[in-house]
Amino acid sequence: MSEQVRRLNAEGTVKLSEWFQAAKNQSTAAAPVSLLVDAAYTELLLPPVTIEQEPGGKPFASRYEFGLYLTECFRSSGKTLISRDYGLWNWLSLFYIDQLAPAFPDGTRNIRDIEVYILAPTFKHDSYYRHAIRTAWLAANEHGDHSRVLLIPAGKARPGIGVLAHRGEIIEQIAARQKLMGSTTIVAGADRMYMDAATGRPKRGAAGAEGGSSRRLPMVLSQLDLTFDLNACTVDQFLGLLPKEFDRWKPPSAKSAAEESATP
Amino acid sequence: MKKTLNWTGRADIPLKCLALRVVEPKLPGERRSFTVEMPGLADLRLKPDAHIYVEPYVGTSSMRFDYGTIAGMTTPADTGLDELDAGSGVLFRVKIVDESGEVGKILASANGIRPESEAEEDDRKALLPVAYRDLGEAIWMLDIEPGVRPQLVLNNLIPALSDLIRNNALFQGAIVPHAVRRVLEVLYLENEGDDDPEWVKDWKTFAETVRGSEIDDDEEDEILKQILEEVVASFIAGTKWVTNFKLQQTVNAGKINE
Fold it and tell me: Are the beta carbons of B59 and A79 closer than 8 angstroms?
């Protein structure tokens, strides 16, 4: 199914939020898809954009693929104009509901926290990055190929969690900190450290809590960022600044660069 | 307990050294831009060849502008904020960077600076500045991003809120204590960041003044929670919101009777 993209107005957002809340409480009410084209609850996005639920006739294989698709669709929309257009992102949550939270045979759905689907106009810093649709677009739009480290999780999704709502620990750690999420150097560095080029998935243990893992990265960066001008670093320079605990994750070229710079 | 690491002797740039202002477009087709003045930067006695960078940002979107060096300050020809997300306030980082090594080292910085507002110039140093944004169905929120002076945000879809927050004791009393409590919790119970910036010092001075004695950051969390409750209770007592509300009602009733 393809559709011209619209944005929910305040009343439409309230209606959709109410449905998500009911669905979270095991309601079997069908998703309110009639809202998608209801002029009382939506308005057309301009310039017009046409979007498909299953481009090529098949659902998205990952949030990474989805993020790249959205980036392409919204290329002419103006990134800065749509980034905080919560009505747009919430409309897309409804449009892709069956790939976010597919219905079980009895009609119920596995609905996670409401902020995964509904973006509030308050953009609270500790929750807005959880919006499944917007964050997939933002990551792919900002970081291109490197966004795979953010959008391809290590494990399998729990039953009822659709591909588009399945997120891993690496994006939890990075997207929660705006400065990290906004840094092309840091995300490219994380991609080089934690992604397995052979499998196209995160390396084993990358999402764990051990030394040098993605959970340690924000803590170490919060100190390095006070001292070094990370925004002006190349990816190699950035990897060279990371302490020894990250050595097992660094690609060989970065390891030797770090060793050279440590030599007096 | 606070953890502080500052092994390169990095300095804070005082707020008085920076006058940042966002220039909003007044006509269709104009762009949002900014101006900055940096009086007194030379007095910080930093390396003359250190570079100055100004980084405006909104959420994850940011830009970077080169202002030359301490000895030879320049202004970029174009300070358009075209790459920043629309629909939210702009914050600024300013960095003084020693670029003599392979990787630039920060000699001094200021983070999370809110620009001066033409309408509310005095608000910049206010303990809890008030801002107005579209909050959907929410009446108010506390904007408390890490490292940035907190703001009380009221919904600009209800113009009357501006008057209520200034003059209505009932409205003030329903909102402000929650905001104050939350800021204090973040500062004393959740903050493990770097050195205290100016606004954190302002808040801590406020809390100690209200309490009438010093507050030790290193106390156990349970004791700190109790102390913060005492601070909020003393603050509420000092505001006399209930008394003021009753007074307002009496005055209003008198006007009606007249």
Answer: no
Is the Cβ pair A84, B10 closer than 8 Å? no
The tokens describing B72, both together, are 């030879």
**Across the interface, do A231 and B60 touch by the CB < 8 Å criterion?**
no
pLDDT given for residue B1 in this prediction? 42
- Which helix (H) or strand (E) is B179 found in, with range? helix B169-185
Q: How far is CA B90 from the centre of its chain?
A: 12
User: What whole-number distance in Å separates Cα of residue B227 and Cα of residue B231?
Assistant: 6
Of A206, A198, A210, A84, residue with least CA distance to A153: A206
From B231's Cα to the closest Cα of chain A, the distance in A is 26
Residue B227 tokens read as: 């102390």
Asked whether residue B9 carries a pLDDT value surpassing 90, the answer given is no
Kindly state whether residues A144 and A207 are assigned to the same domain.
no
The answer, for A232 touching chain B at a CB cutoff of 8 Å, is yes
Q: Structure pTM?
A: 0.79
The answer to whether A233 contacts B103, with C-beta atoms less than 8 Å apart, is yes
Could you say which of A14, A121, A223 has the minimum Cβ distance to residue B5?
Answer: A223
The interface predicted TM-score of the complex, written ipTM, equals 0.77
Domain that holds residue A224: 169-264
Do A117 and A2 fall into the same domain?
Answer: yes
Residue B73 to chain A, least CA–CA distance (Å): 19
The CA distance from B64 to the nearest CA of chain A, in Å, is 9
- Residue A31 phi, psi dihedral angles, 5° rounding: -60, 140
Contact A82, A111 (CB under 8 A): no
Domain boundary among A143, A167, A191: A167
Q: How many domains does chain A have?
A: 2
Residues A105 and A192 in one domain: no
Whether the per-residue pLDDT at B123 is higher than 70: the answer is: no
> Does A222 contact B193 at a Cβ distance shorter than 8 Å?
yes
> A103 vs chain B: nearest CA distance in angstroms?
29
Q: Identify whether the C-beta of residue B139 lies closer than 8 Å to the C-beta of residue B155.
A: yes
Handedness of CA A50, A52, A57, A63 (dihedral sign): positive
- Picking from A167, A192, A208, the residue at the C-terminal end of a domain is A167
Dist. CA A187–CA A135, nearest whole Å = 14
pLDDT tens per residue across span B194-204: 567 788 888 99
Of the candidates B60, B103, B135, the beta carbon closest to that of A178 is on: B60
Residues of chain B contacting A125 with CB distance shorter than 8 Å:
144-146
Chain B hits for A13, CB-CB cut-off 8 Å, are 136
**pLDDT at position A242 over 60:** yes
Residues A187 and A82 in one domain: no
**Residues of chain A contacting residue B62, judged by C-beta atoms under 8 Å apart:** 182, 231
pLDDT of amino acid B190:
85
Residues A163 and A258 in one domain: no
Pair (A70, A59) in one structural domain: yes
